[in-house]
Amino acid sequence: MAEDTILADDLIRQLISVGEVDLLVGISSHSNANSANHAFHAIELSFQKNFTRQRAVIVNVRGGDTGGSEVAETSDAGAEEMSAPSARSLRTVHRVTADFSVLPSPGLALRTVMTAADLLRARACAMLSSGTSDLTPDRIANLLAPVFREKFDFVAPLYSRHKFQGLLARNLLYPMSRALFCCGIRELYSDEWAFSGRLAADCLSQDVWHEESIQTRPEAWMAISAISNEFRCCQVFLGQRLQSGTGPGPDIVEVFRHTVGNLFWCMESRQSTWLESKTLESVQTIGPEHELTSGKTDLDPHRIFEMFRNGVAELGPILSTILDPETHAEINNIVACEESAFRFRTDLWVRTLYDFAASYHHSVMNRDHLVQALVPLYRGMTYSFLMEHADSSATELEAVNESLCAEFERQKPYLMEKWKAKIEVKS
Amino acid sequence: MRQTILQGLEQAYGNLVHMIADFLPRFLVMLIIIVLGLLVAFLLKYILRLVLSVTKLDQVSEQAGASGILRAAHLPSMTALISRSVFWLTWIGFILLGLSVLGVASLQEQISRLFQFLPEVFVGILILFVGLMTANFLSRAALLAAVNAGHRSARILSWSIRFLIWILTISMTLEELGVARETVISAFSIIFGALMFGLAIAFGFGGQDLARKVLEKYLGNTPQKEKDKEPQPL
Question: What's the pTM value of the predicted model, to 2 decimals?
Fold first, then answer.
């Protein structure tokens, strides 16, 4: 059994004293992080306001030096920092802590939480990150409610964003995963999502937990597993995307390695699923489908274009190994265009991505390097998007996104052909 | 007189027959060993090729960048190279074993010297190959990192890394083979030292602004403006 190997004795002891639960919220936190305390109060408040009669537990997967920030094991009145709830929980909200010497990877944290959920027979679970200081009780309730009350198995978040933010999700991750896995989930990569105990048990039974892609970003794999195994999925609007309260924004190369690399890995590990033709599974949306805002930004399109142009020139030999000769020639042609006239056509963008995916499958070079080589081309697409849609409305952008999804679906046979082609090794 | 000549001829003939009688079985043994070696080498090559195809070595080699090096050197795929190398090594081993059966003293000495030198040659080839692979991998990693960080002279940086690792690899290989050991070490020290000194001077004179920017960026005196100029990807 998984719990025999992954859960420490102390954690099992804590879980046994909790007994069966209805709701479980997993949170990954650093021992010294103050934001974890804020998150605990938000979760407890959410239970008190929205799940008064349900048995609930918070599983804190904690890493690092444990000195100085111990939290209480149980709390039945909680919420010192927040306003008093209108209803009080009739049950004790338990807190259990899984201590690790260093902060565990997201994959290990999720596995620990899912194993605990399986042991406690939790019906609805949510996974949160403690790195954000804007976590609210309603946000947590919105994630848990579809699983607990409407029997969904996987709940992905939906966010409100500036129209020029989240372009990787909008121009690559969402349309590609939708075309391949028939997965209409817009936010495959997020720090907050919910799932049922049934789905947790199914995921735990899969032998993937040692994989690096699962260790770094397990949520997309979980969503794709849920869709592929015909679990009920939905997405729920949560408002603004929460950003980590500390440090600069994520490095674009790291984001690519963890998301695009992860998606390519999902394609590799689940090729039998997407190579079969399937129709798009509609995913129910709770709340608005999307909310794009516009306003002034401090983006520097000229700098983005220069990085694209320089990248394509410098990475010429690497790109020629990855891309189809025709695709590479077309990219070289558009690089030669004047900055003002430059456009990255949708069909070329899709073909480029499919060439990268096929080359990843055939391991034409180190896979990590291959994913990094996509960054300059993404910058080209970003520049083109910024120029083309400077004045576009949210509705127009949604139409553009739909046509991009259609292009990914139209070119799927091209990917399948390249994917199945034998690798040419000179001998 | 006639008797003596006849006796000499008889002795010479006897010696020849004795020599042939002595040499022929050894020659036959040598031929048998060589033919047997050929069969064993073929068998090993076939088994190895089968095992390497099952373990998808070519794919791993592509991923590690080793196949790129082989292609650049107009060499076959990794599976073919290893299986062919094993074939030739096995067969050459059997040929040398066969030759030693002939019992030619000078030949035996040469063979023994060759066998003594062989491990060093193998280690030398291994160092060269691993060095070239490392150079390829690290230079590509540096190129990608520099390009994605927006540095203009990414290819120069990449080539510098490749060149340094090549120098180190070649020096180590020559040292392993024992070719002009002291000269190689001195040449390496001079080239490496000169290169580093040159780079330091070039950076000191030409890259003051860059050095300031890098230090400011890493010591946190300026905010992360560059990152803010790109949209958040997620």
Answer: 0.80
